[in-house]
Amino acid sequence: MTHTQEYTSHTKLIWKVFIILSVITGVEVFLGIDKPDFLYLTKFLGTNLLNLIFIILTLVKAYYIVWFFMHMANEKKSLRRAVVWTAFFLIAYLTALLLIEGEYIHNVLGPLTKWNY
Amino acid sequence: MEVTTATETNQATWDGGKNKPLGASYGKLMMWFFILSDALTFSAFLGGYGLTRFKYIESWPIADEVFTHVPFLHGVNAPMYYVAFMTFILILSSVTMVLAVDAGHQMKKDKVTIYMLFTIIGGLIFLSSQAWEWKTFIKGEYGAIQLKDGKIIQFVDKTGHQIALDKFAIHSNRERVQLNRAKGLWFMSGSKLPPFSVNEVIEGFKSHPEITIRTEQLNLDTKQKIIIPRDKAMFFLKRAKAVVKGANLKVNEYGKTTFADFFFFITGFHGFHVFTGITINIIIFFNVILGTYERRGSYEMVEKVGLYWHFVDLVWVFVFTFFYLI
Fold this sequence. Notes:
B: alpha+beta, 10 helices
């Protein structure tokens, strides 16, 4: 753009973010293969602790991708909020409704499913 | 404050006027606009997957038992390693993309070219991995029996591990004929014949006292499929309808057919995005080589396709979590 001369390279930051993302993926894969019982066989907030860890790690990854790869960190606050808040609240709302509905269908249909012959 | 009127016919008008409340160019804003709407589409798909999964919470296939293959390592049980590799490739190609954008800001044409090339190669590796994953999933591994009510019955050995049909089924000398247009009416054709008939599998089951069956049902305490004792197994097998090998949109040897449907649909839609991304990247790559952006004085176009490419990576991060990990 017009500030070509004053633009400083972010190469270091980019590789740092890459390492963070790789490490998080590594942790996820390790937990996904190992599935430690003390996390996997628990019940918490409608799922288990292991799944919650996966979801949180995924959101952290999403944050790093959007903020540093998509340069959201350098955008104006108005643009950032227009995109991130819209997406976050709409998706949270949609997901909550769908998952609640899914459990309701299970409660209604589950007992009608036959598993003995 | 400036007011842009229709009579003003300079360049600024076509860029949306000189007044830029969001501090971004028209093209970049529209790319964000598109990404936001696409993100909502994908979240609807993954939300639908979540709904179906909660609906069948006690009989959903275990992803770890489905995606266990790595190319060139036939027969090795290696859950998730290959998907992890694919994720890694996509993140890496995201990094080269953002490096290309970074080099573009510094007007370094050679660096932009080489990083764009790496990004395209990464995308191609990912796409071919995806194709291989589909092929393996469609081909299937063990084979199963489908009951008349659509439920899937799998065979396990003494240790509770799944066992392939060809390990125990007995070949009878009867010939089975594939229904095709030559044998029926022009619109009639049978699906491809499975490797064994139902009778061959049941005969094989009877002559192997060490094997038994398991249903799709999960024991919610141990999160393992429930194994049926052998003396009760014949009550299930009496209702057998078909032998299933592999997965498609109609049957799925791993369990619920909807699982296969969602797999094809979500990874397919994401794969289509990757394909589009590679195509756009190639166009931009040639533009960079031809010096289009050098003459324009700005590599903003690289930044815009970069946004799209990162979005594809972002979606995969979520697909990876919800399809393979959870």
